[in-house]
Amino acid sequence: MPGESLEMLYYLGAAWLAGSLIGLERSFHGRPAGFRTHALVCGASALLMIVSTNQWQWLDTNMPESAIRTDPTRMAQGIMTGIGFLGAGVIFKEGLNVHGLTTAASIWITSALGILFGVGFWLPALTATVATLLTLSLFRWVELRLPSEYYADHVLSYAIEKTPSEEQVRELVGRHGCVVKSMSYSLGEHGAVYRYHMVLQTKDRQNLTRLAGHLRHSSRDLLEFHLSQAGE
């Protein structure tokens, strides 16, 4: 096998392995784009860059080398533009929650890694691969232990004739260590159901669990409630 062909195989193999490692971390945490997606994205990016940087091998052999103009940066730009659409496909919003941002970012950097491997930039490619894996794994552990504030989307539904006052609702939420940051109101079921829509803030995630437990057992007038923590 010619040396240049063997070198291309090294580039493709390294890109496939890097994408697979990142994808394994995503699959382990149950993300929509996992092992196979990241492996394919990284391998495809590397393959396209190899094609771009070796045009002289697949163009007309009778064409003089001076007539060949290669611009791999245009291929890299096209790859990153296309990956933007793929990354956008894994992001969706539900209430206050925005899901898939980290997965979209991992797809984006996986594509960039494929470009680096495809042009043979081993040191930055390997360094970025290790940094990505550390960011996805170690930073998750750090993030969970950092002091922070938590937000939740909260809805309470009552029969119209048994609806408590706003002050009573705020007092109930406050007893469980939560603060109402915003509140809106709505009528449903042809005016038979009154709903409080709130955004809650708390410094302890367990306060939301305790609030949900209280609502589940203590109020007969409550028809239904929804409590969803904001986050990815």
UniProtKB/TrEMBL annotation:
Its main location: membrane. It is found in: Cell inner membrane; Cell membrane. The keyword Membrane applies. Residues 12-143 form the MgtC/SapB/SrpB/YhiD N-terminal domain. It is a multi-pass membrane protein. It comes from the Bacteria. This is Protein MgtC. It comes from Modicisalibacter zincidurans.
